[in-house]
Design goal:
Elements: H1 9-25, H2 30-58, E1 60-64, E2 70-74
Length: 81
């Protein structure tokens, strides 16, 4: 049986937003609320992990000097240091 491809960050976030909307409506039965909450926590973890990986990849940027050489520069976000 072929494996299902992993959902992208955007797909996970979209599903999480739908769950939040359902939970905020307050109209679902308790069993559905519990299932949605559990799935939402799982999706939240996946989104946070994807954001962490993206941040790690952004920590080092490449800058090209006038002579054509490339140097690494650490990403500094205003207010974080």
């Amino acid at each position: 049986m072929p494996r299902k491809k992993a959902a992208s960050f955007e797909e996970n976030l979209q599903e999480l937003e739908k769950i939040v909307d359902r939970l905020e409506s307050g109209e679902a039965p308790l069993a559905e609320v519990m299932a949605d909450y559990t799935r939402g926590m799982e999706l939240s973890g996946k989104c946070l992990e994807a954001l962490k990986k993206a941040e790690e990849q952004m920590d080092v940027l490449l800058a090209e000097a006038a002579d054509g050489s490339v140097t690494e520069q650490e990403l500094v976000i205003e207010g974080e240091r």
